[in-house]
UniProtKB/TrEMBL annotation:
Membrane topology: Multi-pass membrane protein
Gene source species: Helicotheca tamesis
GO cellular component, one term: endomembrane system
Location in or out of the cell: Endomembrane system
Domain HTTM-like, residue spans: 8-333
Keywords assigned by UniProt, alphabetized: Membrane, Transmembrane, Transmembrane helix
Presence of the UniProt keyword Membrane in the record: yes
InterPro entries per the UniProt record, alphabetical: HTTM-like (IPR011020), Sporulation_signal_mat (IPR052964)
Protein name, UniProt field: HTTM-like domain-containing protein
């Protein structure tokens, strides 16, 4: 049978190891991109001094005392120390060095704090990733392909060598062969059935996609199917969501493929339907199809995020989505890869099988039997069951299927909310922000306007821009995403575009750390035209300009 009534797959620890390596590498990438503009990036995360920080100290949605401590921003030096600590923990996590419950918990705490210190650049991928990282605390990510596993095998080898000096090889092992053989099946597989920890991280992936699909379809229309199919842009007969997503100014790449989809309604409709089918069905199939076929929905999910990575400037979302699919990689895939590598490089790789597993993972049986490890598992089990239950409870509560006793406070307290809105109903209006600064011209008898986005993106390179021309000629800026220095800054600008108080504070902070004599924040409001239109936008209002003298 293709389906099974219960999650049938076994969790291969090689899939967990691949997830660990990719997730750790992603954290390193995320930290580097968050700080890629040096001090101009760091000041998004500080609160002192207030006049030089891009956000006022009180400008945060996290008002509870525990969050005030956990997400404290402070000075530039304090932020440098926090980012350095997070970077080192992520590097250790990726390599599998000292990758235990304590270090994984510290990494999760630091990642959550890093994300929540600046909510303006935060998006749904950050929430999704920290949830996966939380579940990884309870999983043996370090069992293979890690420094810890290599060191454990070396220590075991030295122990065997000392034992051989005092007696026969069989005596040195002390009857451990039987124990190892019994543990062969669990060296690469956690259990014959999914453990609660492995099931939890898989179910977390499913709930994210399921919640997203429901937020687009069921939630806005009150479980009214007629109204839902009449008005929802993600469902037939409209199927216009991809058109509006690629026609908006937020995160749309300026490439020929995007232009082709945008100008061909039939292609955009097919892509909308395909995206909804993959997001709605593939994660559930990954959980319930048998192991021989799980690669089909897994590859569909991976392909979806790869396609979105090409079309849209949302790198974090797509990277996290692709990394998460590695969790579902079945055992036979790794066995085939390992066999091919062993045939190509017999001196480096061993063929999969009981003999190689017995030698390679001898330390794993020993580690799993240790009293210390058993005590830790007993302590973690109640926490795992509580989080598993709360995940289901919070998801159901957010859907109004049950009444939430705690109003979601526990989930918000540990940043574990199950409210998923990954690209909900695409808007029919959009806006874009140009940041310009004034500098004395070369002749010294006037000033010239400079594109600050270009100045940041190209390390101080001057690009002059005539904003008077744009205002006089009622010019509409198109393909604007590539103008921003990076995707997170674009997200921030779109998030606070209507907040004049925050905008002015940001501009005053920019004045403190840039050479400009005046900085202007100019915003265009546009309406996205429907599929088949000759133009992409029409204006909905005049340009709005906020100006601060430095």
């Amino acid at each position: 049978m293709f389906f099974s009534p219960l999650p049938p797959q076994q969790q291969d620890v090689r899939s967990l190891a691949a997830f660990r390596i990719l997730a750790g590498t992603y954290i390193l990438y995320d930290i580097i991109t968050r700080l890629q503009h040096g001090r101009l990036s760091l000041l998004y995360y500080t609160s002192t001094p207030a006049n030089a920080s891009f956000f006022h100290p009180n400008d945060t949605p996290h008002k509870s005392p525990i969050h005030q401590i956990w997400f404290y921003r402070g000075s530039e030096m304090f932020q440098i120390l926090l980012f350095t600590l997070t970077f080192l923990l992520a590097l250790s996590f990726s390599l599998g060095y000292k990758c235990n419950v304590t270090t994984k918990t510290c990494l999760w705490l630091n990642i959550v704090a890093m994300q929540c210190r600046c909510m303006a650049v935060h998006d749904g991928s950050d929430s999704y990733f920290r949830h996966l990282l939380l579940w990884s605390i309870f999983l043996p990510l370090e069992r293979v392909w890690s420094v810890d596993a290599w060191m454990m095998r070396n220590r075991r080898g030295k122990y065997e060598t000392r034992g051989e000096g005092n007696g026969t090889k069989e005596e040195a092992r002390g009857g451990e062969e039987e124990e190892v053989i019994n543990n062969v099946a669990s060296c690469y597989i956690l259990e014959k059935e999914l453990t609660i920890e492995a099931l939890a991280i898989r179910l977390q992936i499913v709930l994210m996609y399921l919640g997203t699909v429901m937020n687009r379809t069921v939630d806005p229309y009150g479980y009214n199917p007629i109204r839902m199919f009449q008005q929802c842009k993600w469902l037939p007969p409209q199927l216009t969501a991809v058109h509006y997503a690629l026609s908006g100014s937020l995160a749309t790449r300026d490439i020929w493929l995007g232009n082709m989809v945008r100008t061909n309604p039939s292609i955009s409709k097919i892509m909308t339907l395909a995206a909804m089918m993959i997001e709605g069905l593939a994660p559930i199939l990954c959980l319930f199809v048998k192991e021989n076929h799980v690669y089909i929905p897994q590859f569909a999910l991976f392909q979806l995020h790869l396609g979105l990575f090409v079309l849209m400037n949302l790198p974090n979302w797509q990277m996290v989505g692709m990394i998460a699919t590695t969790i579902f990689t079945p055992c036979w895939v790794w066995d085939k890869v390992q066999l091919k590598l062993a045939l190509l490089y017999p001196n480096t790789f061993r063929q999969p099988g009981p003999v190689s597993l017995k030698k390679k993972d001898l330390a794993m049986g020993e580690e799993s039997k240790s009293i210390k490890s058993t005590k830790k598992k007993r302590l973690l089990k109640p926490i795992t069951y509580f989080l598993f239950g709360y995940m289901l409870y919070d998801f159901a509560g957010n859907r109004n299927w049950i009444r939430k006793i705690d109003s979601g406070d526990i989930g918000e307290g540990i940043r574990f909310s199950q409210f998923w809105v990954m690209y909900e109903g695409p808007p029919t209006t959009t806006s874009q922000v140009m940041l310009t600064g004034s500098l004395p011209n070369i002749e010294g008898d006037g000033v010239e306007e400079v594109n600050i986005w270009h100045w940041m993106k190209h390390n101080g390179d001057i690009q002059r821009i005539n904003m008077t021309y744009f205002k006089t000629n009622d010019e509409i800026w198109t393909n604007f995403t590539h103008v921003y220095p990076d995707a997170r800054i674009e997200r921030a600008m779109n998030g606070w575009r209507m907040d004049i108080y925050r905008t002015k504070h940001f501009l005053r902070g920019m004045c403190q750390v840039t050479p400009f004599t005046e900085i202007s924040f100019t915003m265009q409001h546009l309406r996205i035209l429907p599929p088949g239109s000759a133009q992409r936008y029409t204006r909905t209002a005049s340009d709005v300009e906020t100006r601060v003298t430095c």
